[in-house]
Amino acid sequence: MKNILITGGAGFIGSHVVRRFVTKYPDCTIINADALTYAGNLENLADIEHEKNYIFEKVDIKNQDHLAEVFDKHNITDVIHLAAESHVDRSILSPLDFVYTNVIGTVSLLEVAKKKWAGNYKDHLFYHISTDEVYGALGDTGLFTEETRYDPHSPYSASKAASDHFVRAYHDTYGIEVVVSNCSNNYGPYHFPEKLIPLMINNIINNKPLPVYGDGKYTRDWLYVKDHAIAIDLIFHEGKIGDTYNIGGFNEWKNIDLVLLLCQQMDQKLGREPGTSKELITYVKDRPGHDRRYAIDANKINKELGWAPSVTFEEGLSETIDWFLSNKTWLDNVTSGAYASYYDYQYNNE
Ligand code: NAD
Ligand code: TYD
After folding, report:
1. Average pLDDT in the 261-275 region?
2. Residue 240, domain member (yes or no)
């Protein structure tokens, strides 16, 4: 009987992980600890919030006293740590927020776990969710493996790299049992529309310009979020203590090709004349320090744990667009208020 603390469970990936664990493991209690920043949204979990084995706690992971209370109250046995500031463009605007949450927040959580689990680390797991961006940028060839040297370039990836190092340091120094996974770009339902795919979907729906940074030839390796949640479930249960697992989609796309595919699929779904939405594409000022290419070698998790992506990109994207089209209220709610001022600052401030 585990009591699993999932941090950041009201965010994009966290909500999929919470949903999977709550429904698949009725004998475990899932405690979702989330500060509900602009990116956290309890609507993401409306379908499971009344389940008996689900509990929400509004907690800022920087607050050790509050975390300690939550550990005691729910007798936390394991942690899956997803809470973070997660958007590169915002990290360029306010890097310190990323240091506070991603570095200090992670170390605060490690400190509380270290104290609460002292004496029996063998019975507990601290699973840290990270990103492929810690490895830096690739040229035209090559893949990130678990042995690739860290070389972060953005304040976001630098803060995630620091948090990964702290997690491993707590394993090496204090003996806490940890596992780390580094995943490529996710997409899917509940994705906050500051990121490329949901931003483009929202703008296509609203006939707004589609802002492509630089020459549009930057490359990302896209993974359907539900496949990431499956990988997290496997690593949580079967991952080797102290190890790192890279997770990726074997699915590289140049941004401009991806946006063209989105335009094509959405013209069809919205009943628009083929070629209509691509007229909205607008090349804009590049992101500073923009990493040219990310691509993951996911062979370790494939060979050791038997994981592979379950859907093709075309299928996943089509499901994602359908979800956004049938969840207009969700989209309207998250794009009202503070989103508009962020958008104006980010895209109309050249
Ligand atoms: P997200 O921005 O959608 O959600 C982050 C969640 O963390 C939100 O619910 C927010 O309220 C919460 N949070 C932020 N600061 C907090 C704090 N101080 N205390 C408690 N909660 C706080 O992020 P996401 O895209 O779901 O990413 C989740 C994790 O996965 C992050 O650690 C991210 O680095 C990692 N990751 C993301 C991707 C991706 O493509 N989105 C890829 C690889 C790894
Ligand atoms: P993003 O979704 O922010 O993820 P990340 O930077 O973490 O990979 O961006 C994905 C790619 O899309 C990246 O190369 C930047 C680019 N991009 C645009 O061209 N326009 C946009 O409006 C956004 C948000 C991203």
Report:
1. 98
2. yes
CB-defined site of ligand 2, < 6 Å:
88, 185, 195-196, 199, 211-213, 218, 220, 255, 287
Pairing between strand 219-224 and 252-254? antiparallel
- Among 13, 60, 185, 246, say which to mutate for ligand 1: greatest number of ligand atoms within 8 Å of CB: 13
Ligand nearest to the CA of 63: 1
Residue 29's domain spans which residues?
3-187+222-247
Whether the predicted model's global pTM rises above the 0.90 cut:
yes
What's the 249 CA to ligand 2 centre distance in angstroms?
Answer: 17
CATH code of the domain containing 149: 3.40.50.720
Active site residue 156: yes
Tokens matching residue 165? 């190092």
* Whole-number pLDDT of residue 350: 59
Q: pLDDT for 35-88, tens place per residue?
A: 999 999 999 999 999 999 999 999 999 999 999 999 999 999 999 999 999 999
- Number of structural domains (the chain) is 1
Q: Is the pLDDT of residue 316 over 70?
A: yes
The closest residue, in CA terms, to atom 11 on ligand 2 is 196
Integer CA distances (angstroms), 83 to 33, 51, 60, in order: 8, 22, 9
Residue 191 has pLDDT above 70, yes or no: yes
**CB-based contact 176:117 (threshold 8 Å):** yes
Give per-residue pLDDT as tens, 127-155.
999 999 999 999 999 999 999 999 999 99
* Catalytic-role residue among 34, 78, 132, 297: 132
**Terminus-to-terminus CA distance in the chain, angstroms?**
54
The encoded tokens of residue 132 equal 């492929």
Max Cα separation, the chain?
66
